[in-house]
């Protein structure tokens, strides 16, 4: 049996957890191992966001974080899209400089996301978190080199995430719990069923992706 790898969570549990503290979580983790990510979420942009970039740079430079994000673009967020793009691109450039994965939140802004990422063509560690979108969006993201992370929506057999999971290449797939109060094991079990593979095989496939991208996790 391999590791339970949860690449984006606010509720750490078993296995290896990438804890995003953007919601101010201080939850202990008695069952697994925690690594940290940090970023400027497009929905939480405020007057301190530029200052926050400097804090992120310091955290990345000294190895306090193993990934950046979540960061991204969201048309439903209060901040204007140009403001979001400027901050996202700053974090993208930072991810390039430090060779860190970038956990990406995107809502109704995939073309703009792709345009921003083309400004750093050498970067290949973008992970679309919480994917639950249409088939054409999935293939657009895959065509542009993104990894795709699926969360609790895989438990809903009618969701895009569940229906399209078999079409996500194993070498581009991650799993996560985000803020759901659901054990990562349940998400792996549902995903393995949709992929028609054993849970242990899915664990090995995702761990290979994890070792490739999250190089600071040893």
What does this structure look like?
- This protein is α/β, with parallel strands linked by helices and 218 residues long.
- It has one domain: Alpha-Beta Barrel (TIM Barrel).
- The chain contains 7 helices and 8 strands; from the N terminus they run E-E-E-H-E-H-E-H-E-H-E-H-E-H-H.
- An 8-stranded parallel sheet has the order 1-2-3-4-5-6-7-8.
- The protein is globular, with a radius of gyration of 16 Å.
- The chain starts with a strand and ends in a 5-residue tail after the last helix.
Could you give a short description of this structure?
The chain has 218 residues and is of the alpha/beta class.
- Helicity, as a percent range: 25-40%
How many β-strand stretches?
A: 8
Q: Structural class, please?
A: alpha/beta
Spell the H/E element sequence. Answer: EEEHEHEHEHEHEHH
Shape: globular
CATH architecture, by name, is Alpha-Beta Barrel
Provide keyphrases for this structure.
218 residues, alpha/beta, TIM Barrel, eight-stranded parallel beta sheet, 7 helices, 8 strands, globular, hydrolase, TatD-like, hydrolase activity, acting on ester bonds, metal-binding, TatD family hydrolase
Secondary-structure topology with pairs:
Blueprint lengths: L4 E5 L5 E6 L11 E7 L10 H14 L4 E8 L6 H18 L3 E6 L2 H8 L8 E3 L6 H9 L3 E4 L9 H5 L8 E3 L8 H12 L3 H15 L5
Parallel strand pairs: 1-2, 2-3, 3-4, 4-5, 5-6, 6-7, 7-8
Organism: Candidatus Odoribacter faecigallinarum
Keywords: Hydrolase, Metal-binding
GO molecular function, one term: metal ion binding
